Amino acid sequence: MSKILPLIIAILLSLSNIQFQNSTTINFASNDSQTFNVENQIENEPAISTVEPSEPKKIFEQDNPPIIPTSANTVRLTWNAVPGAVRYRISYADNVIISPTTGVEVEVHGVDEVFKITALDFDRNVVLEDVPITSTEINPKSPRTTTQFDEMSYPPLYLVYSWIPTKDAEYYEIRLLHDGAVIRNFWTEINPEEKHFDFYDDTPVIEGGEYFWQVRGFSADDVAITDWSEKNSGNTFNVTAPTRFSAIGDSITHGGAMTVPPSHVLCNWETYCSFFVKNLGHSGDTTQQILNRFDDDVLPFKPEILFVMAGVNDFRTGIIGSYSVRNLEKIKSRCEEHGIIPVFITPTPINPEKMRKVNLVEPPPSDWRNEQKFICDWVRSQKYFIDVTSELTDAEGNLKAELTTDGLHPDSEGKKFIGQAVEKWLNDYLMSQD
């Protein structure tokens, strides 16, 4: 990566124009085509030989466009996640690149380069033909973080770090700072089989204070090729206690979907609840694992109400429902011992056909519905419960196909239903206390 001091251009995109620091306005429609090259094509993604993009326009359209110096040979483009999309097709000239992330770094070939970004679902069907660009940066010196902690009610207990891939970087170093001091570091794998550019932290963030995290890219020969990412509102947060309402569970509570990490708000059910709910979820947990971490993860936040949604990782892996319920009963007892009101949420169904198609996890045993029903029946027998399963289930007893991409996690519409169901329960409960 060039060490020459680049021309730093701040570009603010709107629906009809972008503005340079020198007050030179460059008109361009946000849904027009623009172009670049990229290095992060998904492994084993088949090549696309034919593309029929809408008529592209030049990025620089005024009579005397600003001159980009030869040192400005990289541009970073970012866009917002599109509901239902799992990858994005970037078309330029006669080439096509596929990216799983909401941004790319690419080479600049000239001021007349054009590009087009199209959101695709898992089957490569078009979800959105022209995806608007939200930011453009020339010669970025550091990775761009994409965590949206500033849009969450509280920071999640278990952080997920996400960022836009850096051109030419083979792996990354991540560090978390607490009140200005580095408290832990992580390194991603070199040349991972699938590059999703997110990293799950298995250590909870409990102690109060200000936190922020950073990432930087490395070459294959272990040389840092970028600066540390900059501090901003999306990667900075404060941990406080107590939190009146909290939620514990597995990945359904933790958040995210197939290629949307929990660090984004789109597929987190807490996003769709108007009450502030502290997310204590941890992806992959069984009911036993949730019980094991109850004291360490719940009690420091002293919640008045704890929403508990668990069991999916039990019945999808062959754990019998009676064992799951025994763990849930112990969680209930722990809540009552500490004056916490437990509100149990029925575990969401799964869709085995889609699970097999996507092939991210092992398909469930044939009798999984019996074990799920055992858990749901127990939940519905509790004093405080929320039934989300009935609405999310199709006629065959599976998670509705239109609500999930990977067959395991509800996407944004499914999470929206869960969040609104929790909101309704809280409204009814608080009104009954008046």
What does this structure look like?
- The chain is α+β, with helices and mostly antiparallel strands and 434 residues long.
- The chain has helices at residues 251-254, 287-292, 294-298, 312-315, 321-337, 352-358, 368-380, 389-392, 412-433; strands at 10-13, 17-19, 25-27, 74-78, 87-92, 95-99, 103-107, 116-120, 126-128, 135-138, 160-162, 171-178, 181-187, 198-200, 209-218, 236-239, 245-249, 278-279, 305-309, 341-345, 385-386.
- A hairpin with a 2-residue loop joins strand 5 and strand 6 (95-99).
- The model is unreliable at 1-71 (pLDDT under 50).
Topology:
Blueprint: E1 10-13, E2 17-19, E3 25-27, E4 74-78, E5 87-92, E6 95-99, E7 103-107, E8 116-120, E9 126-128, E10 135-138, E11 160-162, E12 171-178, E13 181-187, E14 198-200, E15 209-218, E16 236-239, E17 245-249, H1 251-254, E18 278-279, H2 287-292, H3 294-298, E19 305-309, H4 312-315, H5 321-337, E20 341-345, H6 352-358, H7 368-380, E21 385-386, H8 389-392, H9 412-433
Parallel strand pairs: 17-18, 17-19, 19-20, 20-21
Antiparallel strand pairs: 1-2, 1-10, 2-3, 4-7, 4-10, 5-6, 5-8, 8-9, 11-14, 12-13, 12-15, 15-16
Strand order of the largest sheet: 3-2-1-10-4-7
CATH topology of the largest domain: Rossmann fold
Largest sheet: 6 strands, antiparallel
Which CATH architecture of the largest domain is right? Answer: 3-Layer(aba) Sandwich
Uncertain regions: pLDDT < 50 for 5+ in a row? 1-71
- From the alpha carbons, calculate the radius of gyration and give it in angstroms: 23 Å
Global geometry: globular
Order of helices and strands: EEEEEEEEEEEEEEEEEHEHHEHHEHHEHH
